[in-house]
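seq:
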Amino acid sequence: MNKKQNAEKCPCGSGKTYHSCCEPYINGTEIAPNPEALMRSRFTAYTQLNEAYVLASWHTSTRPDDLNLREQPVIKWTRLKIIDSSDNMVEFVAVHKVNGKAHKLHERSQFIQEQGRWFYVDGDVERINIRQQTQQKDSTKCSEKLGS
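struct:
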C-alpha cells in the first residue's frame, strides 16, 4: 500500500485514516477489540469486496459457505453510521448503491466473543430504498447482508 492510500480516510466513517483504523484488523495484524470495531472493519471489507475477511469474522454457527461478492450485481457501499453499540450488539445504518439507486440497510447486529476474538453472529435488518423511502422489514435473521 502506498503513502497516499495510508493517508486516505477509512471507509467505515470513523474519521481516522484506513491505516490507523480498519487495516490492522483486515490484514490480521491486530484483533478487533470490541463489536463496533469489528463491525466497522466488516463494512470496510465489504467496500473492498474482501469476502475472505467478512467470512473469517462471521461466527461458524451462522456463516454461509460463500458470499460471491464479486459475482453479485455491483453494490457500492458508501457510508456507515453507528447508531448504538453495547457489549455484544451494534446498531447501524449502511448506505449503498445498487445499479445507481441508493438504499439504506438498518441493522441490529449480534456479536459473540470466543477465545479473545469477536465474531458477527446475525442481525435484524430493515432495508430502505432512499428514493422511494419504502421499507422492507426482514423478520428472520438475515444471512446475506452487511452486518454481516
